[in-house]
Write a structure and sequence with these properties.
Blueprint (H helix, E strand, L loop, with lengths): L6 H17 L1 H10 L6 H7 L18 H14 L1 H21 L2 H13 L4 E4 L16 E5 L2 E12 L6 E7 L9 E7 L5 E6 L10 E12 L3 E2 L5 H15 L2 H20 L1 E2 L2 E2 L4 H29 L10 H28 L9 H9 L9 H15 L6
Parallel strand pairs: 1-4
Antiparallel strand pairs: 2-3, 3-7, 4-5, 5-8, 6-7, 9-10
Helix pairs in contact: 1-4, 4-5, 4-8, 5-6, 5-7, 7-9, 7-10, 8-9, 8-10, 8-11, 9-10, 10-11, 10-12
Length: 394
């Protein structure tokens, strides 16, 4: 296994780093202060070639592997985590899922506009009453009616939901079959019956529109069924594994930013006649931050590389399922620790809302909740450890 980037990979990350410093970082403060959504963000990212990174060049994409796309996500997270978590759900949860699971016709119809940034994508899984048990407790129903499916129900906490043109949506098509009666649909939001019930006000990820979506007799053409009817669980689980692997990278970028800001502060902030960085306790904090970040980065890189080798429909069980859960589990604990130490090093200034480390501190909490909670990740890991040893617990 390689533990350093190739020259080509380094060039991809460096270019994304320079782009994000120039174009994304200036947006960060206003996004957080005003909960401001830059309406042209996805269009600009598309024009710059940063949407559809994993899509073929013939469709307007960049033809990258998932690992290289993750390097871009890390660079974006360093300079503007909030922008990264508008781009990430569009790029990975929606676009890449359609690319992996769609028919040739669906890919040709939807992917070029997503790559160009002409359409904004989202994914709709969580519901008001279905969070950690998203599959078993799902209430959104889809009933076949001629050439359409009619969807009724709600989705909750949907990133990009209030602004999305496409929502990759999961619904029960055979409620009596539980998780094995779920289907995936590409829902175009300009249809009658679709609405946004509320845009949520969050302590972090501000400027990232998150909302509750309503499906009131929404008619979705049968040709927008993603995969086979009642086979949506495969799309869900493989998508969740890749989501966990991919969306951990912006947090690594954010953590590295916190370390760099803390180093600068510790070198210039003086107390008792000398820089606070000369005190061993501060040095201990900085060393702990570095070690946590490097461990999380190595784990995340290994996991992304493994996801690149996943076959279509693979995921949701076995070694890759355990690896993705472990990577995001460790990454969430890392960002919580690193941002806490960054605030501690900054002292009173770290407690001020407008400081950059404070923005990262507030953003960090969602890492232990989104894409499956920390508790669920631990259950996944333990279950797979037992399964690998041949032990059945149920």
């Amino acid at each position: 296994m390689q533990f350093s980037l190739t020259d080509a990979q380094r060039a991809i990350q460096d270019a994304a780093f320079r782009y994000a410093e120039r174009e994304l970082h200036p947006l960060f403060a206003r996004m957080d202060d005003e909960d401001w959504f830059p309406e042209d963000l996805i269009a600009k990212l598309g024009a710059a070639g940063y949407c559809g990174l994993t899509a073929p060049e013939a469709l307007g994409g960049a033809g990258m592997d998932l690992f290289s796309a993750g390097l871009v996500a890390e660079a974006f997270g360093y300079w503007n985590t909030n922008a990264a978590f508008i781009w990430g759900p569009h790029e990975n949860l929606c676009l890449n899922n359609i690319l992996r699971n769609g028919t040739e016709e669906q890919i040709a119809r939807f992917i070029p506009d997503l790559c160009a940034g002409r359409s904004i994508g989202a994914l709709g899984l969580t519901e008001p009453g279905a969070g950690s048990d998203a599959l078993g407790s799902m209430a959104l129903k889809a009933v076949r009616d001629g050439d359409d499916y009619v969807l009724n129900g709600r989705k909750m906490f949907i990133s990009n939901g209030p602004v999305a043109d496409l929502v990759l949506t999961y619904a029960k098509t055979a409620p009596d079959r539980g998780a094995h009666g779920i289907s995936a649909f590409i829902v175009e939001t300009d249809v009658p019956g679709f609405s946004v019930a509320q845009k949520l006000n969050k302590m972090g990820w501000r400027g990232c529109p998150t909302g509750e979506l309503v499906f009131d007799d929404v008619r979705v053409p049968a040709r927008n069924l993603l995969g086979a009817e009642n086979q949506g669980v495969a799309v869900v689980m493989s998508g969740l594994d890749i989501e966990r692997a991919f969306l951990g990278l912006p947090y690594i970028g954010a953590a590295q930013r916190c370390l760099d800001l803390s180093l600068d502060h510790a070198a210039t902030r003086r107390q008792f006649g000398r820089p606070i960085g000369s005190f061993q306790m501060i040095q201990s904090h900085l060393a702990e931050m570095y070690a946590q970040i490097e461990a999380a980065r190595t784990f995340a890189y290994r996991t992304l590389a493994a996801c690149d080798a996943m076959a279509r429909g693979e995921g949701g069980r076995g070694e890759i399922h355990k690896l993705c859960a472990g990577s995001v589990l460790f990454g969430a604990e890392m960002i919580a620790k690193v941002t806490d130490l960054a605030v501690q090093i900054h002292g009173g200034m770290g407690f001020i809302w407008e400081t950059e480390v404070n923005r990262h501190y507030r953003n960090a909490k969602i890492a232990s909740i989104g894409g499956g909670t920390t508790e669920v990740r631990r259950l996944i890991i333990a279950e797979e450890l037992f399964r690998a040893r041949g032990h059945a617990l149920s």
